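Lecture 7 notes: from sequence to structure.

We start with a single chain of 449 residues. Read the sequence below before looking at the structure.
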Amino acid sequence: MAQFWNLAYSCFTFGKVDLVPTVEEYTALLRCPKVQVDKVYSKAASAPAFVKKLMSITRMSEQWVTARIQQKGDGRCILCVSLRDLIVAHPDTKRKFDVFALSSYGLVIFPKALRHIDEAVVDFFDRLDKGVTPVPTILVETFRSLSACRRASEGRFIGCAQLLLAWFHSHFWKVDKVSYRVFFNSYSSLKEIAAMSRRDDISEENWIALLRNLQEEDVEWRAHWFVPDEILYRCESFDWVPLLGIWGAAGYAPLLVLRQYRSRQLVPVKHRLAQSEFAYKEKNYNKKVQEISDAWKQTRRMKRLAVGPMTTLEYDGWLSKRVNDNIPESSLEDVRTMEEYFQVIPSELKIVKRDFEERNTELGKKIKQLEEEKMHLRLDVDVQKLEVKKLRKGKRKAEEDLDSLKTDYKKLRMSMGTAGLGKTSEQWRQEVQEEKAIVDQWEKRFHDA
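Now the structure, written as tokens:
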């Protein structure tokens, strides 16, 4: 998103659309009390020492705090792991929450040093107990980080990325609006945004092409969770809204994005806006800080104006000439609808997944076929078992008949020998051999069977 940050106007310029997070939008997102709106944070020239602030927040000894402070770059920090261990072990429940909140500010909202909480974050957190609003401070560090990344064409964003993305998605996702929800005490816009479905499968190239050629009808100008009332548009002699952060200052022009308030868009006044940014390391920065602090004591607000067309002819003429130095101009040949940009070409992973599913289906069919064949084989085996059982039963019956035949034959011979029946022994021997031959033939037939 940093490449779409317009340095000349301190806003995002997507094609012919200007958008910027505003104080009112961030106040609604964070649900800050309105009584805090004008009580802004400013870096004190003579503030208590870093060690004293940490002692006050954690209620730990000076020795404990001093042992855990480190030098990181151009400033001092405390390790996040030290605060994590303190959250677990601290006997005071209220201090547990304070230390946890400090860790959240240092890791999520102002993540300057990896795995460390910067001294400036501790100073800011210490001032929150005095009722100052965190919104302008969060906004200005977001703007300054975007500008730094834009100038260098690279770098690590050290603003609150999660809050910025929540704001971004609110203006680009068409949702069903249920406006009365915002009046409920239990309503949380951040929880609702976190639960929204998002198109995370869109390639970076498609996003760049989409934002470069963005049309007015593609924008959700007023977020569904935002109910605008009055618009802060200037502070004292400034023609725009100056903002003080924890590491520097910058400003933005709310009149540039009146359509985000569902108001009629006029030509903005931005005198000296491009030169408003400065860091607290610069010479005589204390004087500038004091000037901005005094300006916030005399803020100027306006009611929403929604009469006639959303833009004036003067604004349309100004828009065509305004400076846009962030990215190449939009290409009319590449202009497509948002739905067309969101037609995603399958990634290699999706192609592999689809092939796997097809192969899985084929294997399922083969497994089913094998199971059917197995069932048929089981039936064939059962039939063969029955046939074998029948053959074995027949064999046993034939053996029993043969044994019975042998017994009868012996009895016959004995009775014939006893009776004599007028035959010679030679005749009897010959008849016995013939009968034996017959028996041998039956036995041979039985064994063959």
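The mean pLDDT is 80. Keep this in mind for problem set 3.
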